[in-house]
Design goal:
The chain has 11 helices and 13 strands. With about 290 residues, the chain is of the alpha/beta class. The strands form 3 sheets. A 7-stranded mixed β-sheet has the order 5-4-3-10-11-13-12, sandwiched between helices. A 4-stranded mixed β-sheet has the order 6-9-7-8.
């Protein structure tokens, strides 16, 4: 076994063995995190490889990853606070809507948590992501538990213009707020849908939990699910992207009767919209 293989094996072993809090501490050091990433980049080959997830709650699952740019998926260190929240709030049998499913990592986390008695609806409009999302669901035999919906979730059901980011796997609905730090170039058209129409108009199951990570599109998506929020009060996992998105999201959730909490240990309440930074990870819990 050469040095590169030893380094990769050691990283995989650490991902399996080390507690989550220890891994968070390691990555909290910028110097150490850069050193680990640089070492792994030298040790693994470029391009997509079907691989077994080494750590985290998807340990043992199979994904097709570029281990140079997607090592957080492989090591199980991707969004640890979200993984903690899934463990805290998701129960077997739940219906979960994953808005901005991407390549499916979080959808698989949800599928694992809801077990065979639950259902995950993965909303993802980008063609490049959809291809990998389908592959990952198939690789892990979860076709009966995860349903792919190739839509951008917005305020009304219509064809919508979508701006692609620096990679074809990233983008946002034109007219949404946030992520002004990113360059958006090519534009495509995708189907958009409002969740009130999806649930009440089309007769799909009402969700127990909704995860929203749509690059500033939350300011468009929340008005399109107002009726469902007022009636069903699902738990919301929300990643905000920008001050305007934060302000609009705060007002929409407060109007619907939610307590807005930080996505971190203990889930303390956010005192005001002014406390939110340009990027924030939140859990919104019904107060009624």
């Amino acid at each position: 076994m050469n040095l590169n293989s030893l380094f990769v094996s050691a990283a995989a072993w650490a991902a399996r063995i080390l507690p989550g809090r220890v891994k968070k501490t390691l990555y909290a050091s910028p110097t150490l995190a850069r050193t680990i990433r640089a070492g792994l980049n030298r040790a693994v080959r470029a391009g997509f490889t079907e691989t077994t997830i080494a750590g985290g709650d998807l340990k043992g699952y199979r994904l097709v990853l570029d281990l140079q740019s997607e090592k957080d998926y492989w090591l199980g260190t991707y969004e640890p606070e979200l993984q903690d929240a899934i463990r805290e709030f998701i129960r077997p049998g739940y219906v979960v809507y994953d808005l901005g499913a991407g390549i499916g990592y979080v959808s698989l986390l949800f599928a694992r948590a809801v077990t065979s008695s639950g259902k995950v609806y993965s909303f993802e409009p980008l063609p490049a992501n959809l291809e990998r999302l389908k592959k990952h669901i198939s690789l892990n035999g979860l076709e009966d538990r995860v349903k792919i919906e190739p839509y951008a979730v917005i305020d009304a059901t219509r064809l919508v213009e979508f701006a692609l980011g620096p990679s074809v796997a990233m983008g946002k609905v034109v007219g949404s707020t946030g992520r002004e730090d990113q360059f958006y170039g090519e534009r495509i058209f995708v189907e958009g849908i409002a969740l009130d129409e999806y649930v009440f108009g089309q007769g799909n199951p009402e969700p127990d939990v909704i995860k929203i990570d749509i690059e500033g599109g939350e300011s468009l998506a929340l008005p399109g699910m107002r009726g469902m929020l007022m009636k069903q009060h699902p738990i919301i996992f929300l990643e905000l992207h920008g001050a305007e998105a934060a302000s609009r999201s705060w007002l929409a959730l407060k109007e619907a009767g939610y307590k807005i909490c930080w996505m971190k240990a203990g889930y303390p309440a956010v005192k005001s919209a002014g406390d939110l930074d340009w990027k924030a990870y939140l859990v919104a819990l019904p107060e009624v």
